[in-house]
Fold Helix-turn-helix domain-containing protein.
Amino acid sequence: MDHLATLVTKIAQHTDCDGVHPTKIPNLSLIRVSNPTEPVRGVTQPSLCIVVQGTKHVTLADHIYEYGAGCHLVASVELPVVNRVVAASPDKPYMSLLLALDMPALGSMLMEMPRTTETGTARCGTGLCVSEASPGLLDAALRLTQLLDTPEDIDFLAPLAERELLYRLMRGEQAHKVRRLLMPESRLQQVNRAITWIRDNYDKPFSIDRVASEASMSSSSLHEHFREVTAMSPLQYQKQLRLQEARRMILAEALDAATAAHRVGYDSPSQFSREYRRLFGAPPIRDISRVRGEDASLVGA
């Protein structure tokens, strides 16, 4: 608990307002939220989030992951999720640290670590997982965060502190998730290739056979393991990416709904409006009016 209390103090010192605060340490952001939030949709990146105060919900499809102080969430692939801070107040804000996973560094570390008995054909499991943070993981997170007090030490010591944090992650309860993502022919790596291809081509039509070919999988295997990791089919995944990107365009670029729909690959404005309403709970005009002015940076909190 001493580690958590100290991390709360450090995050408070380096965040003067609510939001996601990038730091001078590459890959590290600090997050502070003073009140419960409405659900915010976004796409996770491979990352580690450690909560030191408050409670957070992350929803993937129909599954809700709840984690609070002393717990961490690992996202091993890019996933469309709904984020919501559920326990926070001005006196006791939600606080967490977010570390983008350096996949080359993790890959190099994996090569140096003892081999495990896992194989590339092991089942993937969902791309999100929540666990209690070990004392070693919290200790490493604290040492990394404390470097913000001495910026002159960051260039030399931050890579070492981050490496220790990654090592603790690779030795922890959820290490298998990260290991499988790094194994070239693992199912998780194959699904990740499919996810990457869909992300890069989300505005174009595709066939399951094409995506399966990109992932070096059969169509039936792709369906099975893609749903296992993402809790949705490849087509549902594409649809969520399209709708979230269209929403971003309408908000950030002031596009009208029809233009945004066309840019993300919809030929039918009416179909776009129906699917947009189904995902966001309201048609584009009403939804944008409701969310305009909200802090979209809290997607990654």
User: Anything to note?
Assistant: Residues 160 and 282 are 47 Å apart (CA to CA).
